[in-house]
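Researcher: Next entry in the queue.
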Amino acid sequence: MTLLSQLAALAAIVGTGVVYGTDVFCALVQRPALARVDDATLTAVTGNVHRFADRRMPAPGILGVAAAGAAAALAAGADRTAAAATAAAAFLLLVGWLVLYLRISAPINRTLTAAADVQEAASHADPRITMRYDRARGSLDRHATCIVAAYVAGAAR
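Model: Structure for this entry, 157 residues:
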């Protein structure tokens, strides 16, 4: 049973690694590269990337989540408490991440894919607005949501 739980954990690592490896590539390479193109090209490329990614990426994602759950159950069945707890935590975190993806990213991906289908670019009248958004993205401390959250957290003390 221990060998099965280890194989399940390995499958979870591989499946999850494919998904997060793709995200890292997009963050390190794709995003900076696409920052240099016009809005129409950005919409077309991003929409078509999501068209294929949304069809192909569920398989490794589901493998990662299911294998993490199986690793937790198999480790618990083998009385390997630490391994079971670790795999269960991984499973719960992956499920939480999946919920965030389904509620936030998936609708955006569908919108981008639909925009690519009709070759519609979302652009600003003034490109300086987009540049301002890109510069401000790293300074979340000034974001209204963060200010409200900090205020609420301070009031809860």
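Model: The mean pLDDT is 83.
Researcher: Noted, moving on.
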